[in-house]
Fold Rhomboid family intramembrane serine protease.
Amino acid sequence: MLSKRNLGNVIRWPLGLLAVMYLVFIIDYYLTGGLLSAYYGLHTRELAGLPGIITAPFLHGGWGHLLSNTIPFVSLTGLLVFFYPRLWPRVLASLWLGTGVLVWVLGRHVTHIGASGVVYALAAFLAFSGIFRRDFRAIVVSLLVLFYYGGMIVGILPGEEGVSWESHLLGLVMGVLGAYAYRGEREEHEVIAQRKKEEKERQKRRKEPFLNTDAFDKTKEERQNEAFWQKLKELSERERLQR
């Protein structure tokens, strides 16, 4: 059941993070001339680039770059918060940091900026979580994400200049790993469903007798038959002796 608190999180967090992205972009683009991106972007395999693991998704190279990430980021983050109200803070933090770490270790020796890596991680998590969890709601979300964002797969291919395809690819990898890692973490509706299933099984075991229901009836009937034939035998023997 959707609580007021969760509904607030669905609206507050995606839009709040997006507002930070827009604010940082405006400051960087119009006031610093790109210095924030230069200093706080993700510089691979450099100690100076470690802060970029956290800050790079807030930085963008232009309006087109930012706008292309806006709708996917808000919608996918909203889906994560809505369908995983207990897990989403850990999942989002894991995907955000994990994608940054992978890019820092494995990416090309350039400055990586933009939220697209996190977007790919979110899409992959939501798409694969239903497969690993085998939960009806998670499967519905998986199909929804695959339908609307399946075309994003082409973004993992190298070739387009100025695009961090490593962020896309490694974000996708991180999303799959996250979906597998959190497959055993249950949401409230899954816990309730499991409890109901276990209760039904217990009730079924209590209702099922150890022996067949007619086992004792048969035994009683057999005893009555034996007594009848024994009495008949005794009468026949007595009658024979009287003769």
